[in-house]
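To: structure desk
From: M.T.
Subject: fold request, one chain
Message: Could you run this one when you get a chance? Sequence is below, nothing fancy, just the single chain.
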Amino acid sequence: LVLFISMLFLTLLLLFLALFPGAFSCCTEVSDEIPKGILRRVERFEIQKADGLCHLEAVILYIEGRKFCVSPRIRKVKRWMKKKKYKTPRKETHGRKQRRTKIIKKKEKKQ
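Reply: Done. Structure tokens follow.
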């Protein structure tokens, strides 16, 4: 009976891990300060949103195989991500750019 229960528990655990792979990789705490030279050593980073399985907004920095969770509201981190060309995708296209392409197309037709 004990063997059956332990096998059932193990099966349910594996099923949970297969269905929710990010459940154990969420940041539970974020740092509001960041050491001076740490951003230069970052190998990659991810954005954790406060929806779904993770309930905290964070920037996950990977340095030498370790994971550091920092607040996305830190000015230094915002500037660093902008420098790394991280931009949130816009939902709407910019109106001025559209008008400009229409004008160019009209000029091409006249020539």
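Reply (cont.): The helical segments are 2-19, 75-83, 95-110. Let me know if you need anything else for the meeting.
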